[in-house]
Amino acid sequence: MSSLTLPYRPSDDTAAISFSKTNGLPRLSPSPSFSHARTPSDSRTSVRRPSVEHVAGVPTSKRRRYKSQYPRNSPERHVEYILVASFHIDRGPIMEHQYPAPISGDESMLAELMLPDQTHVRSQDWTIFFLHKDTSADEDDDSMTGRTKKKKKKKAERSPGDGGSDTPDEENDEPSEEDGESSDEEEGGEGPPETPLLLLALEDYFKNPYPETLASLYNAVNDMDLSLMPKLSLLERQILQSSNSKDMFIEKFEQMVQQRMADEGTPNDLDSPPSPKRPAPPRYTLPRDTHEYESRVVYSDIPIPVKVPTVIWPEIVGDFSLIKLIQTFSIPHTTTPQPFPIHPHLTTSGIYTHPIIVLVNAMLTQKRVIFLGHNRPSGEVAEAVLAACAIASGGILRGFTRHAFPYTDLTKIDDLLKVPGFIAGVTNPTFANHPEWWDLLCDLPTGRMKISSHIEPAPVTEGLLYFQQQTAGGHHHHGSNSQSDPTGDNLFIEDVQRSITNRYGENAIRAKWRAYITKFARVAAAFEETVYGASNLYIIGPNEELSPESPSGLQADPLDPTTLRGHGYVWPDEGSKQRELMASVSRIEGWRTTRSYYSFIQDIAAMYYPARPIQKPDLHHHHDRLRALKLSPQEAGAIYVSFAHAVKDYAGICQLLTVTPENQAGLFYLSMGMFHPDHVVREATVDLLERIAAHPAGRHFWSQLNRFAKLAFFRIKRERDAQSPVSLPETGTTGFGEPQSLVGVAMGGSMPRAI
Questions:
Q1: What residues contact residue 314 under an 8 Å CB cut-off, 6+ apart?
Q2: How many Cβ atoms from other residues are within 10 Å of residue 680's Cβ?
Q3: H helices of 436-573, where?
Q4: Where is this chain compositionally biased, Polar residues type (predicted)?
Q5: Distance CA 300, CA 212 (A)
């Protein structure tokens, strides 16, 4: 099978397993902190990699053709409309142009949305708003996003930038220049990510305020080529989002380029080494970081770089920073903490619950949330609203942006109050004086939050009565965990703040919040099973019992290791489970009546098979048992053997990798199976790890495995091969080449074998 020589841009990670020039033996990295491997049998010296279809060891006759996220022949456009608005000194906000056709809706309303209040007191500003076409079943797919940016003409300077992200169903709003009857305020185009492009477009529009200028911008943006961005599956997107590896799934980008060159009839000269005498600039290059796809927009013969996120989750809109939002409210709380009034839905850790947890609880229980930024740009409050939607969603839950108003003002208060559980951004301090308008006020300048005195009290629910009866009946469990933080929220926030201090980056923080929301949903499922006997948040797999007392770890079919029973979240002991459920009962019951809860149930049903190609056993549950419980050798061995029998193909390995993210110990707990007293379990674990290491994504997880585990891996491989001489090549070598010292393997060097 041939492949293509491409200009590869390596990540900061270097190879940890490469072939020796003398004997072709695999070398292991001295430490995962210094370098990273591909696979036990793969080399970094070439961009050639095993096909995805060969991961399970069963070759296919035809390589599967990858699809693009943004096909070249797709009728969908990057930009649907360009709107231009200006402020008329007598008529107020007016719509100047709509290209390529008028958009449905009230023009005056659109013009007002495009022009934030009090913009004249700032040198530049921008805002974002949502336009919903209709109320079809999939509301999110039928929504459009509008962004506006304001900039005074006299200060509109061309600023350097990388460009920015572009999302599906996004609507660019380019407001307009002034004319003789307008104010001195110039209204620019879309928000910060497209600043370089829009500054150029504004400059042209100031000179030629005609639809032809808008047409050139419209065509330039829609001509941006994103057709080489591969379409990832749900599991692949989860793996990429939780990984910091810059070349994760680089193979897919290579295959996209190979397909393009094959379609164009470009000759494949891989077998002939590149000659320095005939250098040729590459037409296609691989991304430096697969989390972002680099393209460009050519406007007025000026190429403007644009970075488009490879993975876009629900409720993730615009360019915002979770780190900025967390620090805004964490620093004042850390220096001078102020108590909150107790509300069961919000203050799950008492009066000193962390403000970010209060915010997330408010959004999960569908409270009315307002971000106030007095004397701040409207773009700043809009950013905070978008970040809040993302932090509560985690890329998992939906229903927040549908009722979000990134920026609004007093003229729209009547319409705002008709929306249940809105999230709004404002700059007018009048909102702070009307606690009946909101349930939680987030003051951006001071970094403080305030719970309204008019907030509705939490109702008494069946779940609350259940745990009150448990406590009154003397069933309160005392476990080993500290009771000061039964929900684990304080430890989680400390971990997030520590990661921010250590400069882990935005992607790592988003991955942590995704894990937090995932845990919340799993705890809520356990709550429903405990209180109501069954849960809407979990689909019971084959051979599983509906009872919350369903035994975990038992094998339904003695002849089938994959029929291992057990599902759901795992606690270290029963006391920890009861305390966490008791502490979370109010916010879980509050969430169970919200739109995000019912949307999540729909998503679980729709995404069950894409998200779980392996229905039995529950990989997440049993991996959590390895992580959290002290299992007997028999119990642990059953899990390792079950995983080895169940996880065989590409999709199955992807599913397993989603429950073993790199930032949560990776393959560490699986590798412990190589030290099991039963040789059958050890060999089954080696087989599983070998399949993972040959996987395009799994090779990154393998590279993070410590040297001790890798040493055990090769030792078991050699012991097994030594006991099966029939399977060895005639030369007497193992599957990894000539005999090599295990110390040399572990240290990454080649040492003579001791005799």
A1: 140, 393, 395, 396, 397, 398
A2: 12
A3: 462-472, 489-501, 506-532
A4: 30-44
A5: 13
Beta strands in 547-690 (DSSP E): none
Residue type, 653: I
DSSP states of 535-552: -TT----TT--SSTT--S
Which tokens in the block code for residue 605?
């049903």
437 contacts 445 by C-beta, under 8 angstroms: no
Asked whether the beta carbons of 141 and 202 are under 8 A apart, the reply is no
Which one, of 158, 184, 156, lies nearest residue 86 by Cα? 184
Please enumerate in sequence order all residues whose Cβ is within 8 A of that of 559, keeping only pairs 6 or more positions apart, or say none.
Answer: none
Using an 8 Å Cβ cutoff, are 409 and 430 in contact? no
- Dihedral through CA 292, CA 241, CA 424, CA 499, nearest 10? -110
For residue 168 the two structure tokens come to 């599906």
Q: How confident is the chain (755 residues) per 10-residue block, as mean pLDDT?
A: 39 38 38 40 40 43 78 88 87 89 84 81 80 56 43 31 32 35 33 69 90 94 92 93 91 92 70 54 82 92 91 87 96 94 94 96 97 92 95 94 92 92 95 96 96 93 87 53 78 95 91 94 94 88 65 75 89 92 94 95 90 90 94 95 95 95 91 95 96 95 93 94 63 39 45 37
Q: 505's torsion region: left (phi>0), alpha (psi -120 to 50) or beta?
A: left
| Domain map (residue ranges) of the chain | 1-72+265-282+612-755, 82-222, 314-607
- CA nearest neighbour of 187 among 87, 319, 79, 80: 87
Nearest to 143 by CA among 408, 404, 472: 404
Cβ atoms of 144 and 170 closer than 8 Å:
yes
What is the pTM assigned to this prediction? 0.80
Separation in Å, CA 586 to CA 3, 82, 365, 468, 469: 57, 45, 9, 12, 15
The two structure tokens encoding residue 576: 């920890």
